[in-house]
Design goal:
Elements: E1 2-6, H1 11-15, H2 18-26, E2 30-35, H3 40-44, E3 50-52, H4 77-84, H5 94-112, H6 115-129, E4 133-137, H7 142-150, E5 153-157, H8 163-177, H9 186-196, H10 204-212, E6 215-218, E7 232-234, E8 258-262, H11 266-269, H12 278-286, E9 291-295, H13 298-301, E10 311-314, H14 319-322, E11 328-331, H15 335-344, E12 348-350, H16 358-367, E13 371-373, H17 393-402, H18 404-417, H19 423-437
Parallel strand pairs: 1-2, 1-4, 2-3, 4-5, 5-6, 6-7, 8-9, 8-11, 9-10, 11-12, 12-13
């Protein structure tokens, strides 16, 4: 069969899909990846065929959509995501949920992930190439429309906690409870408008497919998943770090506990920077008796002076190769980094970004005894070194390195992941589901 992957122009979202794409390719299926022009070189370096769709990030259409400062009209990525990631029951009123999806449809989903040109180009290619199955990143809403227009089955692939599926379930319940005069179906209108452009008739069930797919592929561990009334197919996360060489020093046995500090690619490449002082964190960590490997670029390091002697700064090193030698990892909670650490049973110190599910992941790791979560007061000033209550950044990092229970619990989490179907084992499921859903 022919399988089309669609993903917007962020490496971390694409890298999440690479092992499954290659499993399908190795099983004899044709595979192609459609994304924005800036991601095409990264796709090509995986050996997968790439199709450029939509406008580049620096085009006139998208100049105000890719920075954290202004997605459009001064609305930031953090502001947009904050509505969808809300989980407090008392906050989830109809006005709140309706307003959240109204903003998301008009700004986030429509523009920040490619706009009309990406949708048009993806549909045009799908109708030409005629895929049997479309697998779409959970923020790449061109995928389900292209699948409908081409008569293909389609599956949504998650990149973390399924806040969208959860909020959509709340939306459907509250919509049904509204009196007729307040039953504004913004998601139905949005879906109908997108399908109508390509001569496809809207039906109520197509809104659900637009938001959550005909089924969902979930690479997060079961204890991180949200219990939803959806057809969810679990998938074991396999690390893919991109093509790169492995430095000789990675294979050398460290003379003291090695700790990796990484804040991911998305903040520095897409969202305009980190949310706290990297230099302050490095200085505080370096005061401990550890070897700190900081995967940071020159801009992230520019604000500081010379690095302490026990700090090694590298722009990039594959986590899949580095982490087996590490006693702990400090990271922002992004799913790509998190998945690498989970796969190698390394304890986590989460200094959370505020873009999606980073805080939730940190809390759940704490509950499993496999990591610790920092709050924002611990990421600046005295919070990095405070001796008052043992909750400072330094104290928590010391605990992770010195207390063997964290390593044992992280290893238990890793072993649980190995019970989840691998990409290779998922291929027969995808073949059966495609045959059932393809029109």
């Amino acid at each position: 069969m022919r399988v089309l992957f669609t993903v917007y122009g962020a490496k971390t979202h694409f890298y999440n899909m690479v092992p499954l794409a290659w499993a399908l390719r190795a099983a004899g299926h044709e595979v192609c990846v459609a994304s924005q022009p800036e991601l095409v070189p990264a796709i090509a370096r995986t050996g997968l065929p790439a199709v450029s769709v939509g406008e580049a990030a620096d085009s006139e259409e998208r100049t105000t959509t890719d920075s954290d400062a202004a997605v459009t009209n001064g609305t930031s990525w953090r502001d947009l995501n904050a509505g969808i990631t809300e989980t407090r029951p008392e906050a989830l009123t109809w006005d709140y949920v309706l307003g959240t999806f109204t903003i998301a449809c008009s700004i986030h989903y429509e523009h920040a992930t490619g706009g009309r040109t990406m949708l048009d180009d993806t549909v045009e290619f799908a109708r030409s190439w005629q895929p049997d199955l479309v697998i779409w990143d959970a923020l790449s809403f061109a995928g389900p429309v292209a699948a409908r227009a081409a008569g293909a089955a389609h599956a949504r692939m998650l990149f973390g906690v399924d806040y969208i599926g959860r909020m959509y379930g709340v939306y459907r319940r509250l919509l049904a409870e509204q009196p007729p005069e307040r039953r504004d179906d913004v998601l139905g209108d949005w879906t109908a408008g997108r399908l109508d452009r390509f001569g496809c008739t809207w039906e109520p069930e197509l809104t659900a497919e637009q938001m959550t797919g005909q089924w969902t592929i979930d690479p997060t561990p079961p204890w991180m998943q949200t219990d939803l009334d959806l057809d969810v197919r679990p998938l074991r996360y396999l690390p893919y770090n991109g093509p790169t060489g492995v430095p000789d020093w990675v294979r050398e046995k460290p003379q003291r506990p090695r700790v990796c500090l990484t804040l991911g690619m998305t903040a520095r490449e897409v969202l305009g920077g980190d949310v706290f002082s990297v230099t302050d964190m490095i200085e505080a960590a370096a005061e401990l008796d550890i070897e700190l490997v900081a995967t940071l670029d020159t801009r992230q390091l520019a604000e500081g002076g010379p690095l302490p002697p026990n700090v090694r700064a590298v722009d990039f090193v594959p986590l899949n190769e580095l982490l087996p030698s590490c006693s702990a990892i400090i990271h922002h909670g992004g799913f790509g980094t998190l998945g690498n650490a989970l796969a190698h049973g390394v304890p986590h110190l989460v200094a959370p970004g505020r873009y999606w599910d980073e805080v939730d992941f940190g809390r759940r790791l704490e509950e499993r005894g496999a990591g610790l979560l920092l709050d924002y007061q611990q990421l600046s000033g005295d919070g990095l070194r405070s001796e008052l209550d043992g909750s400072s950044f330094q104290k928590k990092l010391s605990r992770l390195v010195e207390d063997p229970s964290f390593r044992q619990n992280a290893a238990a989490v890793r072993d649980e992941m190995h019970t989840t179907p691998s990409p290779h084992q998922m291929v027969p499921q995808l073949e059966e589901l495609t045959a059932a859903h393809r029109s």
